[in-house]
Amino acid sequence: MAFLGMAIANVYLSELPKIKESEPERLLGFYLRSCRNLLAVGLPLVCSATLILWWGVDYIFGAQWSKVTDYVIYLIPFFLGQFVVAPLSQTLNVIDRQDVQLLWDLIRLLVPNLALVLCFLTGFGDVESLGAYGVSMCLIYVLNIILTVFSINSFVRREQVVA
């Protein structure tokens, strides 16, 4: 998945600055279409990998590894969110919104760690803690998409005023 994501990121990042310079009004559509396509590719990949692991972990690694399937199930939202957002993560930098990127990076640092600390303080087990981590990371990736959409809209409006 990382290899595929990196390949997609390279293609996306090669096109994004061209669109920014020549047709900024296309930025939002390009970004949203890329999100949709990554989701369409990532969902079957993540689900397939999960099913293979779910049914094959005992056979591949032995019965002592069977608890791994519990961990993976709770991390599905994280894996999917990462697959969709990571290849598009340079969008904010390309449109000169490093301030928004920094805010998102801080949130990405604080929220999952806070979720894990709260799980520890409330006595949640390892599986529930990973679930909290996976869900919090998925929500942070959704937040990245929302922040990027607003930033692209702001950039396009600013470009239209300048032109």
Written description of the protein model:
- There is one protein chain.
- The protein is mainly α and 163 residues long.
- It has one domain (2-162).
- The chain has six helices and no strands.
- The longest helix is centred in the C-terminal third of the chain and has 37 residues, at 126-162.
- It is flat and about 65 Å long.
Structural class comes to mainly alpha
Main sheet: strands, sense, barrel: none
Number of strands: 0
Which ranges are low-confidence, i.e. pLDDT below 50, for 5 or more consecutive residues?
none
Task: Label the overall shape.
Answer: flat
Number of helices: 6
Domains, number: 1
Features:
single chain, 163 residues, mainly alpha, 0% strand, flat
Concise description?
The protein has 163 residues and is mainly alpha-helical. The chain has helices spanning 2-22, 27-61, 68-85, 91-94, 98-122, 126-162.
Topology, please?
Layout: H1 2-22, H2 27-61, H3 68-85, H4 91-94, H5 98-122, H6 126-162
Helix pairs in contact: 2-3, 2-6, 3-6, 5-6
